[in-house]
Amino acid sequence: MLIAVLLLLLVGSVFALGGCGGGGGGEETTAERTSGGETTSARAVGGETTAARGEITTAEFAFANLTLAPIGYSGVSGNANITDAPGGVDVALDVQGLLTQPGTEHVAHIHEGGSCADERAGNGAPVLYPLDPLIAKEDGTASSATSLDGVTLRQLTSGPPKYVNVHAESTGEEGVVPPGIACADIPGAGG
What's the structural domain count of the chain? Predict the structure, then answer.
């Protein structure tokens, strides 16, 4: 009986200590935000992420993994990964569901002063940072990688609302930005 009690105490202590591990540097957390009928996911590594009123605020954010949701009936979805890098941030975009011819270029941007809901309503915000274009492949996928110098993830996740937007193919008309086809709000921005 004494051995059973000691064994129970030992197992209970192990579980209690496991829950006290705290925020070690390599811990990964995830969060989701729903806005305007879409869900945007974000992940933080190496820092604290807390949710308040559906928005994500960060104490230290190493990277954000955002889910690009279709705009209208485009069928285009994907991911936008924003990672702190020496001297700036790296933005990697991967999309699928493109119905354009292989080789078609799709521009992408980070917009400031609005949200994906605004973009869906036809009230897109101004471009803050242009991203490298995505070139459609035969299977309807595309990807791009952009380095933004002098920008931090903390800056992107604070201040006015911001979002990542992938646009339809260009009509060739100079100065005309095609409509958005996939979008993700940047969590924490707009708070």
Answer: 1
The label of the residue with tokens 């940072």 reads 129
∠ CA(26), CA(158), CA(179), 5° rounding? Answer: 105
Calpha distance 166→92 (Å, rounded): 12
Range of the domain at 124: 37-167+177-185
Q: How far apart are CA 106 and CA 162, in angstroms?
A: 19
CATH number of the domain to which 98 belongs: 2.60.40.200
Q: Tell me the whole-structure pTM to 2 decimals.
A: 0.68
**Coil, strand, or helix at residue 108?**
strand
Give per-10-residue mean pLDDT for the chain (191 aa).
40 37 38 39 39 36 88 96 95 96 95 96 94 96 97 93 94 84 90 54
Report which residue type is found at 49: T
Q: What is the pLDDT of residue 101?
A: 93
List all residues 6 or more positions away from 89 whose beta carbon is below 8 Å from its beta carbon.
82, 83, 147, 148, 151, 152, 153, 156
For residue 84, what are the β-bridge partners?
89
User: Of 130, 137, 173, 161, which Cα lies nearest the Cα of 40?
Assistant: 161
Does the residue 80 lie in any domain?
A: yes
Give me the residue label for tokens 């101004």: 126
Report yes or no: 89 and 152 within 8 Å, Cβ to Cβ: yes
What is the rounded CA–CA span in Å between residue 83 and residue 157? Answer: 12
